[in-house]
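Lecture notes, continued. The same structure-token format from the folding unit now serves as the input rather than the output. Read the line below as a description of shape only.
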């Protein structure tokens, strides 16, 4: 049996599909023409029906305005009754606390970072201290401010530091 030579035979040329011809959209053309003709007729029919505003006579009616009544004098009763109302509030006297507080604003491995934070705090008008401490994971440099006699004063200074974008300060009891 002889072998066939498929290479010499070549490829069958594929015919490109013919593009579909779209019929004219007669319905759309008819509707568009009808709308344009209708709009044109509407404009033609209202063309001369508008009244000329220059020929109108302006009629002004003189109306009598009733005078406004006199404004009555205001009487404020709360000015007279306010001194009679007084609320007595019992305020407990706070005992002087023997607790002192400190604020820790950071803890760093490198002393240079701690000194940088100390300088940023100094620009806000507070005096910070850098204290080295030995821990199980090595030497740390803590940036602390204090001591404070009340926690309220420490909170006030912490809010001042937060407005200066120095966040992360924690308030602790002083036990150094």
């Amino acid at each position: 049996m002889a072998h066939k030579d498929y290479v010499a035979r070549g490829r069958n040329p594929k015919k490109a599909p013919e593009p579909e011809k779209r019929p004219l959209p007669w319905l759309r053309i008819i509707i568009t023409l009808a709308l344009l003709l209708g709009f044109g007729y509407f404009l033609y029919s209202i063309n001369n029906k508008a009244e000329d505003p220059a020929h109108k006579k302006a009629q002004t009616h003189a109306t009598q305005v009733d005078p406004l009544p006199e404004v009555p004098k205001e009487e404020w009763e709360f000015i007279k009754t306010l001194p009679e109302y007084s609320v007595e509030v019992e305020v407990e006297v706070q005992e002087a606390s023997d607790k002192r507080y400190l604020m820790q604003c950071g803890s760093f491995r490198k002393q240079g970072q701690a000194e940088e934070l100390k300088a940023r705090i100094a620009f806000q008008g507070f005096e910070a201290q850098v204290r080295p401490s030995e821990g199980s994971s090595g030497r740390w440099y803590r940036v602390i401010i204090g001591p404070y006699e009340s926690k309220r004063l420490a909170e006030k200074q912490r809010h001042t530091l937060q407005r200066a974008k120095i966040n992360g300060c924690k308030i602790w009891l002083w036990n150094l």
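Point for the exam: Residues 124 and 164 are 8 Å apart (CA to CA).
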